[in-house]
């Protein structure tokens, strides 16, 4: 999945097809016409409230797709260059980025295929060196386990 350019409508349509969900159920749930539902499948973006409803109906967290985009393409800044005291926010503050299995595999694939160096990954995606090397180490261990012959 390419997290850079997200076309949410096509992802919704794909999930509806996978779920074999009847259009009548969808139109009743949203209180939209079939034409309005089909129109949403063509859209690049939709209202958050509708996306929340789609997530509930299709039992899939579509917001996570946007979260993955933020992790890869707009990582949180962890250096305060101006040394200005941080303003208190009423919004929740998150201590760490959450890297999903898909993100880790995406990053490691770029390195393994030679598309990016480790340094390029660390710079572009703002991934700490220790985190990246832990992923590489764990990935190598899981490959070794998969390739080990069964013990007798």
UniProtKB/TrEMBL annotation:
InterPro entries: Homeodomain-like_sf (IPR009057), HTH_Psq (IPR007889). Residues 109-141 form the HTH psq-type domain. It holds the Pfam family CENP-B_N. It comes from the Bacteria. This is Transposase.
